[in-house]
Amino acid sequence: MDIEGTPVANGYFMPAEWEPHSQTWMGWPERPDNWRDYAVHAQRAFAKVAAAISMFEPVTVCASASQWENARKLLPENVRVIEMSMNDSWFRDTGPTFVVSHCRQKLAGIDWNFNSYGGLEGGCYQDWSLDLLLARKILQVEKLPRFPQNLILEGGSIHVDGEGTCLTTEECLLNKNRNPDLTREQIEDELCSYLGVRKIIWLPRGSYGDEDTNGHIDNMCCFVKPGVVLLAWTDDKLDPQYERSMEAYNILSDTTDANGRKFEIIKLHVPGPLYMTNEEAAGLVEGDSVPRVAGTRLAASYINFYIANGAIIVPQFGDKKWDDEAARVLSGAFSDHQVVRIEGAREILLGGGNIHCITQQQPAIPRSKSA
Amino acid sequence: MDIEGTPVANGYFMPAEWEPHSQTWMGWPERPDNWRDYAVHAQRAFAKVAAAISMFEPVTVCASASQWENARKLLPENVRVIEMSMNDSWFRDTGPTFVVSHCRQKLAGIDWNFNSYGGLEGGCYQDWSLDLLLARKILQVEKLPRFPQNLILEGGSIHVDGEGTCLTTEECLLNKNRNPDLTREQIEDELCSYLGVRKIIWLPRGSYGDEDTNGHIDNMCCFVKPGVVLLAWTDDKLDPQYERSMEAYNILSDTTDANGRKFEIIKLHVPGPLYMTNEEAAGLVEGDSVPRVAGTRLAASYINFYIANGAIIVPQFGDKKWDDEAARVLSGAFSDHQVVRIEGAREILLGGGNIHCITQQQPAIPRSKSA
Fold first, then answer.
1. Residue A85 resides in a domain
2. Which of A274, B49, B56, B102 could make an SS bond with B308 (beta carbons 3.0 to 4.6 A apart)?
3. ipTM summary value
4. Which residues of B touch A136 (CB under 8 A)?
5. In this structure, is residue B369 part of a structural domain?
6. Residue range(s) defining the domain that contains residue B24
7. B313 phi, psi to nearest 5 deg
8. Which residues in chain A touch residue B145, judged by CB atoms under 8 angstroms apart?
9. Could you give the maximum distance between any two Cα atoms of chain A, in Å?
10. Which of A140, A146, A367 is the best mutation test for B, with the most CBs of B within 10 A?
11. What SS3 string covers chain A?
């Protein structure tokens, strides 16, 4: 059932990720041109993430017909596995963005347009027809109303504080491969009337090496709570990440959120640098996705964590120093959450993203109102 | 989540079809070797059935990835369409048989084994691997527990009165193409401990011409309420259906139900006889299903109706006399239900069944206990 008009006009807004969820949605990786060795390693990593989240809230994993039995087998019994076809498995970007009514009485989903992160010219894969239907299918499963949206936007390109502020990057949202006919102001208008925000904070760029997504915010910077952000950081001034982090730091230092707060900025150091190995690249088969080449710098960032009910699910890259540091910083930032470290998250990174990219929270509303 | 032990051992039983439903499940026809003209006519008929039921209770239609958009387009907006792969679309036979706990507090599903109505030798199609997963997938969507069952059984081969009696046929359930190693007594034991019945009434045969299913009961005889049955009938003593109907009539007259009641038998005259036309047969393409040949007598029966909440959804075959008579008889039998006549149900019949075969009721339980 589609709702006419915008979420804001209908009394809906996007709540912050730390607000209570009724469940988490995930996809199941499969395509062998993006996930090495026919996705077996990635599937194990996804299963580990799903299992970890399912200790804190219900999880639904969607898998294609040919992978359904395999997913069912590799996932814990308390994870729901349902059949759904997709071109790739980044539910942050292709799933619905859930919105709630102001008194948390009703739930709905925004179904953004999608062009595989840049269309036929700059996109990550050439056929995204199944991804276009994902949000609608998820909303059908949950019997939830849908807000259609023509704007091309991936969920990983926005973060909200739930109180009127949105973080995004110019590198992605103003990229001409997404919405060439829209101005910055027009895009801001859409974000305001769909997410229920009043102020957009534009960082110029995302993480270094994050070319797949053209610099998604969710690999670079996120909210801890209103007025507090975490920023991907490096102390190494020779690292090309440094310039990007410093640029974002300066902007965040000079601005205020929708409610006039100055930001507290917590630095979260990146691992590595990490590069794709020959062996990893050799595990890929040729397909219609962008080639992944040995030696490429991976866009590794601990910012790409997920906030579950009472837990922070954070990628670990096998970099002892910075893995530990990330866990320490996140424990401090989210003192009322348990930090759950997912070892082997490098396999998700090899596909182009991390834990935040592969998860989508469905906010909780009172049960009697949920259907 | 699987439950160990039988439904009866866990306090569950199968309620009668006239008890309140929370929703109806249906599949979406597609295979061009069974549904003529690439299933376009059948899809319209299925959509008509779904639309009719959805006036009385929620309906979920499952469609394959390639048909999802088409199904979504042809179905009313209030019908939920979810992606699910299948070999064919007879959810009565391949969906779960839902069971409830005695105080209607809990709901679960029996996941029978299935071999395409008779296996590689006598079955209707050669690959039934997707059908084997349907019940499990449906239960996952609804987050309901599952009772696995090794017995090969299609839901259309049983009818229960919800008070301890089961109707079935020897032609189907004792057929050596289903469970060759089990005796009648062993099959009875399984039915008793899975459906929660105490008495099985065996009719020797189903309707004439119903070779696909080997004589499913749901095309031949069903309960109106405990102690009252409807029986497919013909007054034409030369019709081979006559002998079958009379044989069933005699058995039903001579027996009692689980609670010692004699049966009131209401005769429901078959239409026709109806035969597959040349044009209809010509619309089929070659595949791995049993060939459908022009001139074949169709197993047409008004018994193959569905009981929705407050409505009887009955097939109409374009046979004015018997269509009207069926509506009259059913209105009398179900005086507190509205009889909804589905014109064009011949298209479902051409595929091998009718409205009861393509529907599966999910019993209602108090909402707070449903998940």
1. yes
2. B56
3. 0.94
4. 72
5. no
6. 8-363
7. -100, 110
8. none
9. 56
10. A140
11. CECCCCCHHHCEECCCCCCCEEEEEEECCCCCCCCCHHHHHHHHHHHHHHHHHCCCCCEEEEECCCCHHHHHHHCCCCCEEEECCCCCCCHHHHCCEEEEECCCCCEEEEEEECCCCCHHHHCCECCCCCHHHHHHHHHHHCCCCEEEEEEECCHHHCEECCCCEEEEEHHHHCCCCCCCCCCHHHHHHHHHHHHCCCEEEEECCCCCCCCCCCCCHHHCEEEEECCEEEEEECCCCCCHHHHHHHHHHHHHHHCECCCCCECEEEEEECCCCCECCHHHHHCCCCCCECCCCCCCECCCCCCCCEEECCEEEEECCCCHHHHHHHHHHHHHHCCCCEEEEECCCHHHHHCCCCCCCCCEEEECCCHHHCC
Among A86-90, A113-117, A136-140, A290-294, which stretch is predicted with the lowest mean pLDDT?
A290-294
Cα-Cα end-to-end distance for chain A: 12
- Chain A touched by B238 (CB under 8 Å): no
Across the interface, whether the CB atoms of A68 and B368 are under 8 A apart is answered no
CA-based nearest distance A240→chain B, Å: 43
A143 touches chain B (CB under 8 A): yes
CATH number at A208 reads 3.75.10.10
Cis ω for the linkage preceding A273 (within 30 of 0): yes
Q: Is residue B190 a part of any domain in this protein?
A: yes
Q: Which of A1, A84, A367 sits opposite B77 (nearest CB)?
A: A1
pLDDT reading at B193 higher than 90: yes
A1 found inside a domain: no
Dihedral sign for Cα B62, B64, B65, B71, please: negative
Cβ-nearest to B137 among A83, A130, A133 = A83
A-B contacts at Cβ under 8 angstroms: 48
Contact status of B141 with chain A (Cβ, < 8 Å):
yes
Inter-chain CB proximity B83 and A137 less than 8 Å: yes
pLDDT in tens, B235-260: 999 999 999 999 999 999 999 999 99
Catalytic residue status for B357:
yes
Amino acid at B273: P
A69 vs B: CB within 8 A: yes
| B296 contact A CB<8A | no
Domain count, chain B: 1
How confident is the model over B62-76, as a mean pLDDT? Answer: 98
Structural tokens at position A287: 């397909």
What element of type H or E holds B306? Answer: strand B306-308
By the CB < 8 Å criterion, does A83 face chain B? yes
Q: Which of B62, B83, B362 to mutate to test the interface with A (most CBs of A within 10 A)?
A: B83
Q: What distance lies between CA A300 and its chain's CA centroid?
A: 14
Residue A228, judged by CB atoms within 10 A of its CB (0-12, 13-18, 19+), counts as middle
pTM: 0.96
Tokens encoding B86: 């299948």
